[in-house]
Amino acid sequence: MHKDKLSLETHRQARKLLRIANRAAKTAQEKNRKKGIPNVYDFNGHLYYELPNGELTKEDPYPLSKETDSNEEKC
User: If you compute the radius of gyration of the chain from its CA atoms, what whole number of angstroms results?
Assistant: First the structure.
């Protein structure tokens, strides 16, 4: 049997923090959906955008923002 070097209390704290983080992420996703803002996910190094209608796409819904960001960096 594998001996874990972390205490039981450390595992409990880690689970508690993970629950808090998961709830915060879920709340942020719901707020984005209500505001019509796409949620962005990274699966195996590929970006996916969840559009407000629930559709998943690899296409950036804000392609002009990349051009704007590039121009700001040059200034």
Answer: 19
Q: What is the per-residue pLDDT across 8-64, written as a single tens digit (0 to 9) for each?
A: 999 999 999 999 999 999 999 999 999 999 999 999 999 999 998 999 999 999 888
3-state secondary structure of 37: coil
Per-residue burial over 21-56, b = 16 or more CB atoms within 10 Å of its CB, e = otherwise: eeeeeeeeeeeebeeebbbeeeeeeeeebbeeeeee
Secondary structure element (H or E) that encloses residue 23, with its range: helix 8-35
Judge contact between 13 and 21, C-beta under 8 A: no
Tokens of 5: 């070097």
